[in-house]
Amino acid sequence: MTRGWLRMCGRYAATRDPATLAAEFDAIDGTDALGGSAPGPDYNVAPTKPVLAVVERHPRDPDGEPDPTRTERSVRVMRWGLVPAWAKDPAVGSRMINARAETAAEKPAYRTSLARRRCLLPTDGWYEWKKEDGRRQPYYVTPPDGSSLVLAGVWTTWRPPDLADDAPPLITCAVITTDAVGQLADVHERMPLMLPRELWSAWLDPARTEVEELLRPTDDAFVAALELRPVSSAVNNVRNNGPQLVARVDPGADPAPALDQPRRRGRRPAPETPELALFDHP
């Protein structure tokens, strides 16, 4: 890592509810599909947590077959960390939170999803850590106007061999990453592929299987407009949550306690894990 920046942690913030996202993305709220339920506002999203994603698919006809003459955009619940259909153990998803843009079309775990199952992952921003004066200072990367920061993603479904045919599958996703550009190149060698509004439809288009030109790093001007905000190191603990995690602090300031629930007597606190990389996984 260069310029004193540490590896990014697998954390981001996502606080918009399904109705808000449905309006923003001109979609329907499909979060209750397959018996699921939408996650609430989360200021400390970590791998394997449920997240909201936007997909566009051909709806099925009365016979259960996709209707190629129509498309339907919806907000869905997925688990962050892609589990390939051929995986024997869904735990593999915790290590597959990213897909590199340069190699995703070649990797067995991602190539079918990249061609046929792409999604948008709306976020408020993500966290990263920098070593300053012997301590890890977290920063929050976010649009300064509070708008959604939309990441390009891929998704798939997984079923264990003994799952009943009518039981819902596990739906999982991964973030597409590229070489970092602009101010983010001083932070980390990788960054998520962020999609401006004018590329949302092209990325979601189920009829489009060739997406090489969409996998280019996000425009320098878009990246230059992002804010890198110093925040409390309370975000290090996965049990901490709430808007206080994204509030600006003086770099190096001691964090305020932020646990949503008191720790039970005799239990160890959850570990701080800033070493879990977000955007440098294969």
Automatic annotation (TrEMBL):
Coiled coil (UniProt feature): none
GO MF term set: lyase activity; peptidase activity; single-stranded DNA binding
An individual GO BP term: protein-DNA covalent cross-linking repair
Chain positions covered by the region annotation Disordered: 242-282
UniProt keyword list: Covalent protein-DNA linkage, DNA damage, DNA-binding, Hydrolase, Lyase, Protease
Entry EC number(s): 3.4.-.-
Enzyme kind, highest EC tier: hydrolase
Database matches in InterPro entries: SRAP (IPR003738), SRAP-like (IPR036590)
PANTHER family: ABASIC SITE PROCESSING PROTEIN HMCES, DC12-RELATED
Homology family: Belongs to the SOS response-associated peptidase family.
Protein name as it appears in the record: Abasic site processing protein
Source organism: Streptoalloteichus hindustanus
Lineage, opening ranks: Bacteria, Bacillati, Actinomycetota, Actinomycetes, Pseudonocardiales
